[in-house]
């Protein structure tokens, strides 16, 4: 059964479409993660995502990290981006300490989370939203 379109809060990874971030599922914030990331080869028909419920605090941290990345992207688009090595996070130099702290907190919080739903996702943009169709429910740990 298909659900209505819901809010996409962040898109933290992109490869031919969103691959990781935060979005609502049935009105509740979840982390979404493309299962294609687990495959050895890219499959253009793979649109399944693991959905993991997240707290309001974790969503707030993910939104702040996304805002810091958007500042970098705005500077890149405006042509005002300072010279940066390739191997540093895509945030402005003055935002790196805060971004590092946020991503460490986010990673630590997500490390203990287990996905509860596997769903197909159809994304639309401006505004960013997604339509989830559940495929499988995982047993609670």
Please characterize this protein's 3D structure:
The protein has two domains: 1-54 and 115-141, no CATH class; 55-112. The longest helix is centred in the middle third of the chain and has 23 residues, at 56-78. With 141 residues, it is an alpha+beta fold. The protein has helices at 56-78, 96-111; strands at residues 5-14, 18-25, 28-34, 48-53, 117-124, 129-137. Helix content is 28%, strand content 34%.
Please describe the structure with a list of short key phrases separated by commas or semicolons.
single chain, 141 residues, alpha+beta, 6-stranded antiparallel barrel, 6 strands, globular
Largest sheet: 6 strands, antiparallel, barrel
| Radius of gyration using CA atoms only | 16 Å
> Helices and strands, in N-to-C order?
EEEEHHEE
Structural class: alpha+beta
- Biggest sheet strand order reads 1-2-3-4-5-6
Report the mean per-residue pLDDT as an integer: 89
Strand content: 25-35%
Gist?
By secondary structure, this protein is of the alpha+beta class. The protein has two helices and six strands, in the order E-E-E-E-H-H-E-E.
Strand-helix topology:
Blueprint (H helix, E strand, L loop, with lengths): L4 E10 L3 E8 L2 E7 L13 E6 L2 H23 L17 H16 L5 E8 L4 E9 L4
Helix pairs in contact: 1-2
């Amino acid at each position: 059964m298909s659900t209505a379109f819901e809010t996409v809060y962040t898109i933290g990874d992109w490869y031919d479409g969103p691959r990781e971030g935060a979005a609502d599922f049935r009105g509740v914030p979840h982390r979404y993660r493309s299962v294609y990331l687990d495959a050895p080869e890219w499959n253009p028909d793979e649109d399944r995502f693991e959905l993991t419920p997240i707290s309001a605090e974790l969503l707030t941290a993910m939104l702040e990290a996304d805002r810091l990345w958007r500042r970098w992207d705005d500077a890149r688009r405006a042509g005002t981006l300072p010279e940066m090595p390739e191997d540093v996070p895509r945030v402005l130099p003055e935002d790196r300490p805060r971004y590092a702290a946020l991503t460490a907190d986010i990673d630590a919080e997500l490390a203990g989370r287990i996905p509860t739903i596997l769903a197909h996702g159809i994304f639309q943009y401006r505004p960013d939203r997604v339509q989830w169709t559940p495929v499988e429910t995982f047993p609670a740990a």
